[in-house]
Amino acid sequence: MPPKVCNNSYFCFRLTIRCENNYLIYMTIQQLEYVLAVDTFRHFARAAEHCRVTQPTLSMMVQKLEDELGIRLFDRNVQPVRPTMAGKKVIEQARKVLYQVSLIRDIVTEEEQSEKGVFRLAILPTIAPYLLPRFFLKLTDKHKDLDIRILEMKTTPTLAALKNGEIDAAIIASRPVEPELQGETLYYEQFFGYVSHNEPVFRNELIRTSDINGNRLWLLDEGHCFRDQLVRFCQMEQVKLRQGAYRLGSLETFMRMVESGSGVTFIPELATYQLSGEQKKLIRPFAIPKPTREIVLVRRKDFIRHTIADLLTKSIRASVPPEMCTLQAFQKVV
Known about the structure:
CATH class of the largest domain: Alpha Beta
Order of helices and strands: EEHHHEEHEHEHEEHHHEHHEEHE
Largest sheet: 8 strands, mixed
Number of helices: 12
Strand content: 15-25%
Low-confidence stretches: 1-13, 240-246
Number of domains: 3
Distance between the termini: 29 Å
Radius of gyration: 24 Å
Helix content: 25-40%
Mean pLDDT: 85
């Protein structure tokens, strides 16, 4: 995940550290940003391109910091470059420092209740294709000074990026358990079966867990919470051993396989609104209790930019069917 790059000289100030022997160490916020960029890309040229400076400039600034600290931060004798043992510790602390600096900017912005600036939002790949078209263009057209940067990420790297301060917020399909994070429910979304007309279960009006045959399922790889939630609900642990040749890339791929006459997959509720009349004939709802996922906006507890988060929350809730904003009695969160 690329680090935030300072684009305002007001925040590119110098840090002065006094050591035990009264020796002073000088470094700039910009130098720390360059160090994080090199750690992210493991390549000085790509880091320089990301930071919008020349490679000699970036290399010189990193070298100057290394000389000031008296240690090597990166091993340049290997490709890709990698941080030294001491460098890893410095990079970890630099990430914390830069996050705290970003909070200073956020405090100023929030005091003005500003709806401007860059906002980095991660969204699960099983949410983004069905949610973003419903609100994103309308929101950005109305608030032209708001630059929302969308990143599609799985749950685990998303939570890590949040904790590291690399993104501002995330939309995932579960409430966070990490003590430094907090979540706000956006809406509830049912799972539906998407069934080939060649499958026996196609003749049923409802899907029951006993109807599901793991050998005919198209499921995402392990690590996708969409898959993990369904496996738990349907008690399909055997699928992990019998999935073999069926590990493809996306829900859309699985849907095309079903439409071609092969197997069963599962789709989220918002996906059903994008289907044609013929495609909707392949949808089969679950029997009660209907498996449902909770879509949550997650932030750090020290998050400051509440004006933009509130704007985002209202836009999303207004874009989904009203009944999805409340958990129904016949639904079960998985």
